[in-house]
Design brief:
By secondary structure, the protein is mostly beta strands. The protein has helices spanning about 10-15, 40-50, 80-90, 110-120; strands at about 1-5, 25, 30-35, 60-65, 95-100, 100-105, 120-125, 125-135, 140-150, 160-170, 180-190, 195, 205-215, 215-220, 235, 240-250, 255-260, 265, 275-285, 290-295, 305-310, 315-320, 330-335, 340-350, 355-360. The longest helix is centred in the N-terminal third of the chain and has 12 residues, at about 40-50. About 45% of the residues are buried.
């Protein structure tokens, strides 16, 4: 793990979607405690996923689920980190939902109005995150930029947390009738405690590089009484189906300031090359069928790679454009077959990378 503090306010906040000089839109984190041995968890998960799949909620939340060790012998994908997270919140029953470290109720009762209220909050923290998976070596690398938009004190413990999750699992079917499970937490990186940020000054950026290697081979434990030993084995069904969620949380109050799904790809952290893109714009935005991306970069930057990914980090478009470095270039993004929601358009060269949001609304 590496951590670097700098004053790269402008570039990082542009990528994160700044609302004002002091705040940015908050993306709430929904943490669900559930189990494949819990009958009430079935309607809880169905209700929650139904809300998550509503077009109006696209891009307005992040979701992480911890499989628990009860009732009965518990979920085979229970982990000690998930158990400790349960203790952190004082959760004593499942299903249970925490929103940004609060709410603390059954997910079955969650309403659209409550989701709207959570999404309407602003935050003094901006996040920009990327991850890559090497399936051959079972390695996940993560890059995160944390930008403080206001002074944030160190008292009470301010931490960055990162969790690797599997978007859908089917191996942990037990007794409650569910056959598919979404956003199952697999490993917290570098561990349960996260990365200590300390106090942050307004406009300060902390750049953090993380890595986790899943050891050994896939193992499906019989139940939660013999959980995965991460030193020797793993429970990842498909490495191509992994995602990463990152969030900033104060341990004393449990408040989560900001969360973000990491985008699949890499981000340049070379400060002196941040101006390699001389312009970048996307129009129309929102769009329905087609969006135009115009940009220009320096001649020595090399070819430009354009990647579009959705809010869960899945790449939906990738293309390489030759760079002549002498005039504005334009690329088309066909959005006709994309679902409504928020997408992220990333342009990268060997010298720099920039990301802008694109809203699709048919």
């Amino acid at each position: 793990m590496s951590l670097k503090k700098s004053l790269l306010f402008g570039a990082a906040v542009l990528a994160a979607g700044l609302v004002t000089a002091q705040t940015t839109q908050r993306t709430p984190l929904y943490e669900t405690f559930t189990s494949s041995t819990c009958p009430p968890c079935t309607p809880g998960n169905i209700h929650l996923e139904g809300l998550f799949n509503e077009a109006v909620n696209e891009g307005t939340f992040t979701s992480l689920k911890y499989q628990m060790s009860w009732p009965g012998t518990g979920d085979p994908y229970f982990t000690s980190e998930g158990g400790s997270r349960r203790s952190f919140y004082g959760v004593s029953s499942v299903p249970r939902l925490q929103i940004d470290g609060g709410y603390d109720a059954s997910p079955t009762g969650l309403t659209q109005g409550e989701m709207d209220a959570a999404a309407a909050l602003e935050s003094a923290v901006a996040l920009d995150a990327y991850f890559q998976v090497n399936e051959g070596t079972q390695t996940v690398t993560i890059q995160v930029d944390v930008t403080a938009l206001q002074d944030l004190e160190s008292s009470g413990g301010l931490f960055l947390h990162c969790a690797i999750f599997e978007k859908q699992t089917t191996g942990n079917v037990k007794t409650n009738g569910e056959t598919e499970f979404e956003h199952v937490m697999k490993k917290m990186v570098p561990g349960l405690g996260g990365t200590y940020l300390g106090g942050l000054d307004a406009d300060e950026v902390v750049s953090i590089d993380l890595e986790h290697v899943f050891a050994g081979d896939y193992v499906l434990p019989p139940d939660a009484t013999d959980p995965i030993d991460h030193d020797d084995e793993h429970s990842v069904e498909e490495f191509s189906d992994l995602g990463v969620v990152v969030w900033v949380q104060r341990s004393s109050t449990r408040e989560i300031y900001q969360s973000r799904y990491a985008a699949e790809g890499t981000a340049s952290i070379e400060e002196n090359k941040a101006d390699a893109f001389t312009q970048l714009s996307i129009y129309p935005n929102p769009t329905s069928d087609m969006a135009m991306v115009t940009y220009a970069t320096t001649a020595d930057a090399g070819d430009v790679t354009l990647i579009v990914h959705d809010n869960a980090g899945k790449v939906v478009l990738e293309q390489i454009v030759a760079n002549n470095g002498t005039e504005t270039m334009t690329s088309e993004i066909d959005t006709e077959n994309l679902d409504n929601g928020m997408y992220f358009v990333t342009l990268s060269t060997k010298l720099a990378q920039k990301t802008e949001k694109l809203s699709v609304l048919h």
